[in-house]
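Many introductory courses stop at the sequence. We go one step further.
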Amino acid sequence: MERDKRVYAALVAAGLIIDLDSRILLVAKRGKLTLPTGHMDLEKDENLEEALVREMKEEMKDENGQGINIRVLGSLGTVVRNKDTDKSKLIEIFRCVTDSRQIFFEEKGETELVRVKIDEALGIKNLDDLAREAITRLISYLEGHIAFRRRNGGNHEEGTDFSDEQEANNY
C-alpha cells in the first residue's frame, strides 16, 4: 500500500510582538528563545489571527493580572515544521504590537519572558529557528518599507518626511 503523501498539520499562530520600548518579546523555553505561539482552536477561533490574540490574552498578563492586548499589524508569512512526522505544524508569523508596559508570561512548564532590541536579536546564540526566521523577515520588511517611503518622498499618505530612526521606532 502506498504511503499517504499529504501533510496533516496543526495550525499555529506565532507572534513577533513589539512592546512600547521597541523590543521584541521572546519566550525562554528549554534553553532556547522563541516566539510566543498558540494553537488554533476550531471551536473558539475563526482564523489564526484570532487564535494568536486569544492565546496571548491567556498566557501574557499585565501588572494587574489581566491578559494583554495585542494589535496584529500583518503577516510575515508561514513556515512548516516537522512535516515528515505526525507532529507537523503550519505556523503563521504575525507582526504585532502591545501597549502593555509590564508583561508576565504564564504557561505550563519553565518559561520566562525576555525583551530584546530588534537590532541585537539575530546575534543571540540560543535563538531558535522560528524566532530567527521571523526576526529576519521583520528586518527585511522594515528595510523594504523604509526604502519604499524614501523613494516616495516620505510618508506617502501624509506627504511628510521622516527619519530611519523614527520609522524603526514605530516598532
